[in-house]
Design a protein that fits this description.
Helix content: 40-55%
CATH topology: Rossmann fold
Order of helices and strands: EHEHEHEHEHEHHHEH
Distance between the termini: 50 Å
Number of helices: 9
Largest sheet: 7 strands, parallel
Number of domains: 1
Radius of gyration: 19 Å
CATH architecture: 3-Layer(aba) Sandwich
Structural class: alpha/beta
CATH superfamily: NAD(P)-binding Rossmann-like Domain
CATH class: Alpha Beta
Mean pLDDT: 95
Oligomer: single chain
Strand content: 5-15%
Length: about 260
Amino acid sequence: MKLENKVALVTASTRGIGLACVQRLAKEGAVVYMGARNLERAEERAKELNEQGCTVRTVYNDASKKETYAAMVNEVMEKEGRIDILVNNFGTSNPQKDLDIKSTEYEEYIRTIDMNLASVFLTAQAVIPHMAANGGGSIINISSIGGLRPDISQIAYGTSKAAINYLTKLIAVQCARDNIRCNAVLPGMTATDAVNDNLTDAFRDFFLKHTPIKRMGKPEEIAGTVLYFASDDSAYTTGQIVDVSGGFGLPTPVYGDMIEMKNRR
């Protein structure tokens, strides 16, 4: 029970990595609020976890309505009087429109960057004064390996995640004296509904060809790293950008081809 007596807020948390974070934090003793646009779905997930002995509640947040970020934080504060852990999990991209520099419309580029950065900036900005008043806290931003490794597509998504990585370090430096830590977790290809719905089997196989741990990550594995940053196990750790990607991008760029050649011998 590493998070007993702690209050956590997780955005975009009704499925995938967000839901896995809710489950992990709640099972470690935290009171966890699920920030969600679809409150009916969030209530269903919360009910399931509460029946397992967890304490999970819901709060409204719609990424397309920026005023709901501060409203979400204020509602949790009114009910609990504190927020110790913030997990900024929201992220969006339209693979059909978010292409390369030659093909992506500027409006789509700015829309994606604006939504992804706002989800971190506005929520952190709203929660930091409360954390400082309560003696500190931990902010964990869910970024992406795409913020480190340039891709041939999704230029807006990659730009936004690279910016979130830097914003993470800025928050860490600017809020350290208030005992507020800020770190980022960068998932690689993770087995979520969003990935399964948007990626072909051929692309998935090609990606994993260049991943030393030759499989997709699991949402609960991302949540494990989030738990580390949320708990006192990382009390002296801030401003870190940690990729949880099975080693993607770590070896030589021709790693996948070399493995295939070796296997054919």
